[in-house]
Amino acid sequence: MSGIVGIHYLDERPVERENISKMVDILAHRGPDGADIWVDGCVGFGHRMLWTTPESLIEKLPYCNQRGDLVITADARIDNRDELIAALQINNRPSDKVVDSELILAAYEKWGEDCPEHLLGDFAFAIWDKRKEILFCARDHFGVKPFYYYFANNTFVFGSEIKAIFCLQEVPREVNEVKVAEYLSIETDDKSITFYNEILRLPPAYKMTVNSKTLELQCYWSLDYNRELRLSSDEEYADAFCKLFTEAVRCRLRSAFPIGSMLSGGLDSSSITCVARKFIAEKETNKLHTFSAVFDKVSECDERVFQDAVIAQGNIEPYRFNADRFSPLTDFKQVLWHQDEAYSTGNLYLNWNLYKPASQNSVRIILDGFDGDSTVSHGLGYLAELANTEQWFYLAKQIKDYCTRVGEPWREALWSWIWSYKINPIIVKSGISKILRRSRKLFRRNQPLQQSALNNQPAWRKLINPEFMEQINLIERLKNQPNRPQTERESHYRRLIEAGMPRTLETLDKAAGAYGIELRFPFWDKRLIEFCLSLPPEQKISKGWTRMVMRRAMKHILPQQVQWRVGKTNMHPGFEQGLLEFEQARLEQIILHNPKVIEKYVNITALQQAYHRYLSKQVTPEEVNSIWRAVSLALWLEQTDLTTQCL
After folding, report:
1. Residue 447 pLDDT > 50
2. Domains of the chain, each with CATH number or no CATH
């Protein structure tokens, strides 16, 4: 993780070095190891350096080629270095003397604007091509590295964080009310917009070219939805997964500093930790640092038994944070300053309180198992696939096996699927609320199945101000939402490409960046995701076990009690408890006493009613999430002095 900024005036006004310097300075937290700027006429770049990889210790950015006609600034880690060095014929020095930004620039020289297609890793970069007088930018496949920009009035400005862009006085600071509505509704498919009008994000897997007249966006890669992998046995699938997953972890261990790993005790973080500790034990004397949240009061959120099983394997230096002693709004002013936007991730306080001790232990790289569920898939879309094709016998077997595994009655769940998909097809057109009602107990305890059910009246519909909803035509916007997925692969594909993924990656990036830490996500490896999407559904759910290919692959790597644990811990009770225990006065000030800052956007009466249900513990998790979003929005509007636009 580093920080990048830049300005390009399309009308050839000269860039003032002072403006680039201000942008670089405001991102000092992203790069404590140095800063530099480059300015040439109407173009200027800046960079904040965070040393992470061994090669980064000798990297200087912005970087010019020998001819001086190409310049790059980048926040990047390139994983296919050996392949690129060979293809680019860089053979005049050892590979450890070739920095990642130089590889990107050489790739641009060889392949031009097709260069992102040849890169593996996490990256956001900008290249000024003086020969063609174009600015070329690109972002990695899944949006691990952030890239924001403003383009209007012959001015193009970009940065790793929005606050850098606002260093230019000509950039307006106005609330984007469409984004506010999408944020409150939790219904969005737009990967470009932000909370500010005219401030956009470069979508994942996109490249952008800016010349004297236009800005052009183009997607350079997308998941192949139609590819299906067929191997001869379960063992072959498991071996192939293990090979790819191990490589996804290995290539993210390139570091000149101690490495850490988030360890919740779940299947994802435990798998990463177990693979990483073995690599580190083989090559280094250092131990792998792990960072975990534990709960004393809200015992249903505590996963110490699984964490202990992983730690017992050895070569691990554990750190634990007692989460139920802290508020979800811990350091909220500082968090909001780093985020630049209201954020929906209520459990971000868990990460925030673990990044600080990591930084104090000189850990600059943390491996994170974020959303391995989506990469591997629980396979529960297979149930809908069987119902859609009226394979009732196989559907009954899958449901029986799954319910038996999680200790729930299966006949009631099966009847719900038959009723919804066969007996009353009208329900199929209007949603599957019957499934949720008839299998309430099962769905309450098993989040993956709950995700396949739809409420007719989601909590956000009640909490958004109806006049605001009508003003921005929200309901009409949401009518374009795609129909229910028909197959497991379609369901898997949609989860991987939904807009919430890069937004969460950005949220985590900025929280870690506050402490000079770079996050790396092995489950968001292009090769691993392409493999998992191509799997037949039987490799994802089998004999009642979800994510079966991964469980098989982690044999002899994970402790058995983690490998075969049923379900995953729901952290929401800890969040709900902490918010009420530590923040009741703040909640009541915003919701009951002074809600004016959000009354344009939020139905205050409905919000207050939901809050009173919250106090009496008669509220649903969805309503608590809606309360959180309203509160987070209010705090952000107040802190950014944008409240006057809302009154």
Report:
1. no
2. 3-219 (3.60.20.10), 234-375+497-563 (3.40.50.620), 381-487 (no CATH), 572-646 (no CATH)
